[in-house]
């Protein structure tokens, strides 16, 4: 079995028209490719929750705030299609850039508030790029539901907000983070870790989990976060960009653990920026 690869809005629209005529509802799993088990878990959830599933693969230039990161982003379309085929995905939409950003494109979708903190504070313009492309992909796929991973928890909240605020009519479903056996959150960027960095990388999740446990036991937030960041650096990370306790719904800062709250971190190792988060 192979997955149909569609590269234009017109080719996609043809399929969507046929599905709509048959009364079938479409779900979408947006990705930037280099697929791993985390992505496949979203696809399986989507298949359980909609009649037809479109996976999108688009390395969106507008959400990269570094040209080097954009250039280095893994592009593995053939093996991505091979991974999707056995799942029976209905279509892989791989739009050419001009299908998303045609000549003269001049609109930016910007979610305020939620994007001021965490990755939004450290990657200027990133969430504008995400919100803009997700709006386009929701419209182009005519999705009624969309599946996103909790690994990118802030992104999940941003997309929920944008779908509600712009009346896009897309129900946004969050799925748990899929991890390697040693706890490292699966990420397309993990392939860029050299062996020593890969071996040290699980310290990020381990430190977050231990800090979350301490917070649940009543430990003070500031001290616990500072100690966890120090542990991550000691394990071999070059920099901890942020490590913060925040409320889930609006991502506001918290002085102590209140349910539902999460610990969020971004840290650099071997020239790669990794993110993770855990419930408290
Ligand atoms: N380990 C994971 N578990 C569950 N969902 C994931 C995981 N990794 C990524 N996703 C989700 O897959 C979708 C597409 O993400 P994307 O293509 O950026 O992959 P990625 O592995 O997050 O890449 P990168 O970490 O390099 O940005 C997003 O909704 C993201 O949250
Ligand atoms: C949602 C997304 C596909 C938009 O480009 C991207 O940010 C991602 O892969 O998480
Ligand atoms: N997974 C979020 C996409 C990005 O890092 O740009």
Keywords:
binds beta-alanine, alpha/beta, 11 helices, Pantoate_ligase_C, Rossmann fold, Pantoate--beta-alanine Ligase, Chain: A,domain 2, cytoplasm, 280 residues, Rossmann-like_a/b/a_fold, binds pantoate, 40% helix, three-stranded antiparallel beta sheet, 2 domains
What do you see in this structure?
The protein is of the alpha/beta class. It folds into two domains: 171 residues, HUPs (Rossmann fold, 3-Layer(aba) Sandwich), CATH 3.40.50; 92 residues, Pantoate-beta-alanine ligase, C-terminal domain (Pantoate--beta-alanine Ligase, Chain: A,domain 2). The protein has eleven helices and nine strands.
Layout of helices and strands:
Blueprint: E1 5-6, H1 9-21, E2 26-31, H2 37-49, E3 52-57, H3 67-72, H4 77-84, E4 91-93, H5 97-100, H6 118-122, H7 126-141, E5 145-149, H8 153-165, E6 171-175, H9 195-200, H10 203-216, H11 221-234, E7 239-247, E8 261-269, E9 272-279
Parallel strand pairs: 1-4, 2-3, 2-5, 3-4, 5-6
Antiparallel strand pairs: 7-8, 8-9
The structure holds adenosine-5'-triphosphate (ATP), pantoate and beta-alanine (BAL).
The low-pLDDT segments are none
Classification by helices and strands: alpha/beta
Name the CATH architecture of the largest domain.
3-Layer(aba) Sandwich
Q: What's the CATH topology label of the largest domain?
A: Rossmann fold
Sheet-strand content, in percent, reads: 15-25%
What is the CATH homology-level superfamily of the largest domain? HUPs
Instruction: Give the helix proportion (percent range).
Output: 40-55%
What is the CATH C-level name of the largest domain? Alpha Beta
The value of Rg in angstroms is 19 Å
Number of beta-strand segments: 9
The best one-word shape is globular
Strand order of the largest sheet: 1-4-3-2-5-6
How many domains is the backbone divided into? 2
What ligand molecules are bound, each kind once? adenosine-5'-triphosphate, pantoate, beta-alanine
Mean pLDDT: 97
The separation of the N and C termini measures: 42 Å
Order of helices and strands: EHEHEHHEHHHEHEHHHEEE
Binding site for (R)-pantoate: 63, 155
Subcellular location: Cytoplasm
Binding site for beta-alanine: 63
Pathway: Cofactor biosynthesis; (R)-pantothenate biosynthesis; (R)-pantothenate from (R)-pantoate and beta-alanine: step 1/1
């Amino acid at each position: 079995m192979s997955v149909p690869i569609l590269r234009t809005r017109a080719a996609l629209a043809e399929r969507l028209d046929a599905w709509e005529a048959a009364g079938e509802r479409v779900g979408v799993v947006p990705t930037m490719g280099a697929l791993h088990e985390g992505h496949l878990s979203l696809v399986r959830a989507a298949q359980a929750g909609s009649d037809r599933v479109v996976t999108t693969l688009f390395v969106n230039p507008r959400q990269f705030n570094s040209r080097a990161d954009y250039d280095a982003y893994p592009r593995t379309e053939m093996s991505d299609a091979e991974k999707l085929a056995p799942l029976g995905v209905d279509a892989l939409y791989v739009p050419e850039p001009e299908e998303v950003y045609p000549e003269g494109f001049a609109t930016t979708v910007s979610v305020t508030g939620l994007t001021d903190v965490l990755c939004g504070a450290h990657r200027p313009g990133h969430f504008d790029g995400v919100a803009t492309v997700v709006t386009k992909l929701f419209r182009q796929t005519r999705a009624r539901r969309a599946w996103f991973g909790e690994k990118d928890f802030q992104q999940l909240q941003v997309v929920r907000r944008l779908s509600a605020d712009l009346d896009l009519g897309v129900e946004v479903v969050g799925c748990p983070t899929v991890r390697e056996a040693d706890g490292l959150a699966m990420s397309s960027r993990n392939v860029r870790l050299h062996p020593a960095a890969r071996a040290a990388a699980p310290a990020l999740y381990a430190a977050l989990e231990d800090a979350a446990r301490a917070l649940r036991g009543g430990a003070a937030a500031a001290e616990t976060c500072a100690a966890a960041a120090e542990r991550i650096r000691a394990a071999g990370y070059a920099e901890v960009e942020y490590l913060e306790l925040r409320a889930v719904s609006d991502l506001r800062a918290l002085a102590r653990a209140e349910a539902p709250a999460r610990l969020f971190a971004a840290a650099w190792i071997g020239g790669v920026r990794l993110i993770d988060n855990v419930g408290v």
